[in-house]
Automatic annotation (TrEMBL), chain A:
Major site of localization recorded for this protein: membrane
UniProt organism field: Aliiruegeria haliotis
Annotated CDD domains: TM_PBP1_transp_TpRbsC_like
GO cellular component: plasma membrane
UniProt signal peptide: none
Name of the protein: Nucleoside ABC transporter membrane protein
Single GO MF annotation: transmembrane transporter activity
Keywords: Cell membrane, Membrane, Transmembrane, Transmembrane helix
UniProtKB/TrEMBL annotation, chain B:
Classification via PANTHER family: ABC TRANSPORTER PERMEASE PROTEIN, SUGAR ABC TRANSPORTER INTEGRAL MEMBRANE PROTEIN-RELATED
Ranges annotated as spanning the membrane: 6-25, 37-58, 64-84, 96-115, 145-161, 192-211, 217-236, 243-263, 269-287
UniProt GO cellular component terms: plasma membrane
Name used for this protein in its record: Nucleoside ABC transporter membrane protein
Locations listed in the record: Cell membrane
Length: 360, 310
């Protein structure tokens, strides 16, 4: 008989081994899925995980890696703080949209000025847009103890409708004929968030993501607030006796994650995406949840997990182009990864004992 | 806007149809939560049920087989959640989210060949006498069978929880799993059954969307219905009959909003379309604050893992 014995503290070894194990298991299960779809599983896995970095056309894909990883890391770092403290902001997708809309709106208000202050103002506005959108579930939780999971998630659907309304109405490009969507922000010099080093995909959003990782690392390991976050997550009772103010903690975690998601949206709309369109959002806010967990809610882990997840996006696109593997299969693949991760996590929290029958 | 262009009898009649998906998913989640398990994967199970029900329904040309397949698919997916949370003791919030993300991908994958295919005609029931009553007949008694099945499920859940030994045990597991375990009840097994029931109901709810309400398959067609069903359980304070009231109120709001769009109200469509989500948030706020205090009615062990130390 197998019995689980709770470890007093999670095992350090397994904490960092389980993500690798989960990725390996996902490759096996994903390979089975690809085989069921009638594709060669080994070729598919190689196309997704190997070719974009080391394959023949890697020069094209490598740049994309940072473009995709940037927003994922930026959002996941913020989410992880809340998750650590037991505050579940799962509406990052909505905050991402609102950041992009508010930032783009502030910029477009000054069109066609060429002031160098426009991009900084937009960045600030983007962060504020995301932050304010995250404040709705935060304040409702603090004031009325409303469940922040449901509110933040429902607000994603509201944000998507606002986005459609903006693309068709207020922010619509007045010079365009027919097509809905705002002016192209990547082609307007004052607002363009361009590649900093050609061919690398390194844009301001990627820089912001790296800064966020560093700040989050310092906050969590060196600052009192970081200690409060860890404490509230591990033992809410001890936190209350220890004088942690739960209201402040909720507001702080939601504000950080909202602002970072808003920033991610703004950098996306001024760079890779270029404009607010009806469906400009691409699910980064949800994938970032997987990234946060895969990175063990640790900033450095999230950095690595974000790169890996970006790889599945790019490799997925490559597999779509060369092998005809549908995009939905990649989405299912990413979902599977989170399942396996949560499943094998039992190894870090519990010790497995094999007992002979009758001994108990 | 021309309010007189709205046919109010037709509007009230479509209310029950609009409410049925979230009613089914909501009552299933209620049973799961009464057993102390918070499954946030309702959206994922609904959408998987929607595509499986649609695919099997179209292939076999039988709505009944479609619904059966949807229930099985929902239950199967929920067992993934059950395995992880009950045996591997994973975090229920995170696992539920994983279930939703996975379900959305899986359904899109299965549904590739079914986009744009015409759905089935599901027959409306004609009850002699009752269906012919003026006004009330079309509103209440001229729907497809699933509308009435969903009401029977609610009644069944209510009676089971209130009057039977099985219902008492289920509630005991949800209120205090250690005590239930000490009394010799198999906590994990009971919870797995509750999770499977929740999954089957969510699958049925999804299939109702793709087989009756729309009836077609489009990617992401549940559009948050699963999350609204979760909110519905809070609104209902974990009481079956209140799920029915909540679902019909919500269904009424949805069809009213659609009718206002059609009647040409001078508000962009997008703002009307976001109203169901805003109202759901408003309801959550009202229920969780002041006298309502929904969380006081919540099962005491909601979302906690059970691990027998001996």
């Amino acid at each position: 008989m197998i019995q689980l014995e709770k470890r007093p503290t999670p095992s350090k070894f397994w904490t960092w081994t389980t993500p690798v194990l989960a990725v390996a298991l996902t490759m096996i299960a994903g390979g089975l899925m690809f085989a069921l779809l009638g594709k060669n599983p080994f070729l598919a896995i190689k196309t997704i995980f190997y070719d974009p970095i080391l394959g023949e056309f890697a020069f094209y894909y490598r740049g994309q890696l940072l473009v995709k990883a940037g927003p994922l890391i930026l959002i996941a770092v913020g989410l992880a703080m809340g998750f650590k403290a037991g505050i579940w902001n799962i509406g990052a997708e909505g905050q991402y949209i609102m950041g992009a809309i508010v930032g783009a709106g502030v910029g477009l208000a000054f069109y066609p000025s060429d002031s160098p202050l426009i991009l900084p103002a937009m960045i600030l506005a983007g962060a504020i847009g995301g932050l304010l959108w995250a404040m709705i579930p935060a304040i409702l939780k603090v004031k009325f103890s409303t469940n922040e999971i449901l509110v933040s998630l429902l607000l994603v659907y509201v944000a998507e409708q606002i986005q459609a309304a903006m693309a068709l109405g207020l922010l619509r490009n007045p010079d365009a004929t027919g097509f809905p969507g705002s002016r192209n922000l990547a082609q307007w010099d004052a607002s363009a968030n361009l590649e900093l080093i050609a061919g690398t995909g390194m844009h301001l959003g990627v820089v912001a993501a790296l800064i966020a990782v560093i700040f989050a690392y310092i906050l969590l390991s060196r600052h009192l607030m970081g200690f409060h976050i860890q404490l509230a997550g591990q033992s809410p009772k001890a936190a209350r006796f220890g004088g942690v103010n739960p209201t402040r903690l909720v507001i702080f975690c939601m504000a950080i994650s909202g602002a970072l998601a808003g920033l991610a949206g703004l950098f996306e709309v001024t760079g890779p995406a270029g404009q607010i369109s009806i469906n400009f959002n691409s699910g980064y806010g949800f994938t970032a949840i997987i990234v946060a967990f895969l990175g063990r809610l640790h900033p450095i882990g999230i950095l690595l997990a974000g790169l890996l997840m970006a790889l599945t996006y790019i490799g997925g696109e490559a597999a779509q182009a060369t092998l005809g593997i549908p995009a939905a299969a990649i989405q299912a693949f990413q979902g599977m990864l989170l399942f396996f991760l949560l499943g094998v996590d039992v190894l870090s929290n519990y010790r497995i004992r094999f007992l002979r029958k009758g001994v108990a | 806007m021309d309010l007189s262009s709205i046919n109010w009898i037709l509007l009230l009649a479509s209310l029950m149809v609009a409410a049925t998906p979230i009613l089914l998913a909501g009552v299933g989640e209620l049973v799961t939560e009464r057993a102390g398990v918070l499954n946030l994967g309702v959206e994922g199970m609904m959408i998987t049920g929607a595509i499986c029900g649609f695919a099997i329904g179209v292939e076999t040309n039988s709505a009944i087989l479609g619904f059966v397949a949807a229930a099985l698919a929902g239950a199967a997916l929920s067992m993934l959640f059950g395995l992880l949370t009950q045996y591997l003791l994973s975090n229920q919030v995170a696992t539920g989210l994983a279930l939703t993300l996975f379900g959305l991908g899986l359904s899109a994958l299965i549904g590739q060949g079914y986009i744009g295919i015409k759905g089935l005609e599901v027959a409306k029931i004609h009850i002699p006498l009752l269906s012919d009553i003026p006004v009330l007949g079309p509103i209440l008694f001229r729907h497809d069978a699933m509308v009435y099945v969903s009401i029977f499920i609610v009644a069944g859940v209510w009676a089971t929880l209130r009057y039977t030994r099985a219902g008492l045990i289920l509630r005991a597991v949800g209120e205090n799993h250690d005590a239930a375990h000490a009394l010799g009840y198999k906590v994990v097994r009971i919870r797995l059954m509750a999770i499977a029931f929740g999954g089957a109901c969510a699958g049925l709810g999804g299939a109702y969307l793709s087989l009756v309400r729309v009836p077609q398959w489009t990617e992401g067609m549940t559009a948050g219905a699963g999350w609204i069903a979760l909110a519905l359980v809070v609104f209902a304070s974990w009481k079956p009959w209140r799920i029915l009231i909540g679902a019909y109120l919500f269904g009424g709001l949805t069809v009213l909003q659609l009718n206002l769009q059609a009647a040409g109200m001078k508000v962009p469509v997008e703002y009307l379309a976001m109203s169901p989500y805003l109202v759901t948030i408003l309801v959550l706020v009202i229920m969780s604050s002041g006298r309502g205090r929904a969380h006081l009615n919540a099962p005491a062990e909601l979302g906690r893992s059970f691990h027998a130390s001996s």
